[in-house]
Amino acid sequence: MSFVALRKYAFIFSAVVIIAGVISMSFRGFNFGIDFTGGTLLHLNIRQEFTLEEARSVLQPFGLEAAALQKVGAEGLAEGEKQELLIQTQQLTPAKQDEIFSAFQEKYGLTAADLLRVENVAPVVGGELQRQALIALLLAGLGMIAYITIRFEFRFAVSAIAALLHDVLVMLAFFSIFQIEVNGPFIAAVLTVLGYSINDTIVIYDRVRENLKTRRKEQLADVVDNSIRQSLVRTINTSVTTLIVVGTILIFGGITLFPFMLALLVGVFFGTYSSVFVASPLWLAWRERDARKHLRVKSA
Amino acid sequence: MKNNRTLLLVLAVVLLLALSAFTVDQAVKNLNLGLDLRGGVYILYQAEETGDAAGGDKIDRAITIIRNRIDALGVANPVIQREGADRIRIDLPGIEDQRAAREVIGRTAMLSFVGPDGENILTGAELRSAGVTMDQFNRPAVSLDFNPEGRAKFAAATEQFLGQIIYIYLDEEVISAPTVESIITDGNAIITGAGTMDEAANLALMLRSGALPVRLVELETRGVGPQLGQDSMNRSVQAGVAGLLLVLLFMLVYYRGFGMVANVSLIVYLALVLGLLTAINATLTLFGIAGLILSVGMAVDANVIIFERIKEELRAGRTMRTSIEAGFQRAFRSILDSNVTTLIAAAVLFSFATGQVRGFAITLSIGILVSMSTAILLTRFLMRQAVRANLFRAPENAGLKGVSK
User: Fold this and answer.
1) Buried b vs exposed e over B178-210: b needs ≥16 C-beta within 10 Å?
2) First vs last Cα of chain A: how many Å apart?
3) Would you tell me how many other CB atoms lie within 10 Å of the CB of residue A101?
4) Closest Cβ opposite residue B243 in set A124, A244, A257
5) Domain A39-121, what fold?
6) Could you state, in order of their start, the residue ranges of all structural domains in chain B?
7) Which contiguous run of DSSP H or E holds residue A40?
8) Alpha carbon of B169: minimum distance to chain A alpha carbons (Å)
9) Which tens digit of pLDDT belongs to each residue from B43-100?
10) ipTM confidence score
11) What's the CATH number for B2-37+225-398?
């Protein structure tokens, strides 16, 4: 079975994932974190077992009983054993944050050091982040198109960017469908995945470029298929070593890094997939279509 | 002769590894740790106009005042920087009590002098400075120095309220209520009975702080307690060591002798990146460590590309020596093009990243550049030496099975 022959299934699979993602994005949207929406996060070390109901009752006098609460702690602990609390609300003034921490301090006998983490982002900063993220993605895309066009050809560039768009859409779909929090570092994860995926794609393209010169007599589909095959061990090994390190940080890195590493895990996996099943087959489809057009023009 | 070459190679590798260990050790001792690893507070303020002109550059004056407030707190190595036209960014490392720090800096106090009749006399904008001094009985006192407008207003007020009390408000709080003992026309007043030296210093600080020419609004705050910082540090370093060992093991099992060369390159790579980060005085953050670990996974890529090319040459029946030379030559363009495109993404990330992920962008960008260099230069050097020492004879040394030479 050749990779090129598999492209039909791959296109269908990708289309299903992306369409499901787009539906989820338009109806459920994203679980945006405070970096995007603005808001306040308090991470407290309660130092004893507690329930979210208890925590909610502490927040009630502040009119914050609807705040997003989460129990966190070392991995492997059961829900009831976790002794840390994450509170996420709309943006609060520093004075209000103090009052809330004091209320918890009183209830559970905490010290100043038990305020593990405070994050406070004004909505205006969140808006800037969204704008900057879009600019960054556009700039990265344009830069890559320019470089690939110079070193390869325009069709390679566009196919590669289409594969990258695929990766971004799949990451967005994953985070929308499972409603995992999307925060500032998610953008860094997306850009990293773009860098990783384009790297994978270029290594295969390089093979195609080389084989086009040395194997002129072969069918174009065979050239692409052989190029993917020749690069396959490299593609797999590099994604294995990358996924090894992403996996270890995901498991042992703690809660701050978790959503970021999860985004990388999904992205690296699908970035590898797209290099093999999307980028090169797309280029092939385009070349074949152009060739047919050329043929029609000639025979006319 | 052969033995000599082997010995030389072993010596070179031992030397490289020892140098790497030394560099890593130095880097670990000297690297700046970010707030998220050692605990601390980062605050981004938006400076807003308060209406009353104070002259000069208001933001710079505000920064000076904030610096005074922070120095009064006794924080080591604070960073206070202007960002853009009207923003101020503050890093306070190693703070035990995040709340107290934010309170002292963030106090967007407005200082006002109010007469006994409740009329406003003047505001902090007309106060040039305040300091600690001694009164005629050698007791701590606070000296006030007004600007020309303030001088005139203060002279009129002291004349009007002679023998009465003038209240000094910081926002809604009365911080001092001195009795006017004489008419002051030269703009130099003294508040006596200010208590102990510390209390006088504190009052002077509050008076100076109250003269903040702008209103500060917290745009973004990120505070991490020292416990969580330490915890993040331990976890990420553990994850890094585990990840590194797994990658080393994978390369060794899959590429055998070649894998050993790649592993030496990888260790030197890691030491070089850490050394460079120390040399440019970069700050290592939690996301920076994540970027570093990630780059280890990606750094082997160039080696993998080269090794796969060499294996292809070997399968085609070429000798080890020619296979290695051809492998490097043919892999070069692929490595260059793929890394440049990745670098484009990293550069954009680098220029765009702020706060948390900036450290990630730095380690990742340096990682790409260094990994490309070590793979091309160091791996090639070691491979050539190994071939000369006749260590790589059979395709099995490349992890290749069932190929006869």
Assistant:
1) bebeeebeebebbbbebeeeeebbbbbbbbbbb
2) 36
3) 20
4) A244
5) Alpha-Beta Plaits (3.30.70)
6) 2-37+225-398, 40-223
7) strand A39-45
8) 19
9) 888 887 755 444 456 777 778 777 877 876 777 788 888 888 888 888 888 877 777 7
10) 0.88
11) 1.20.1640.10
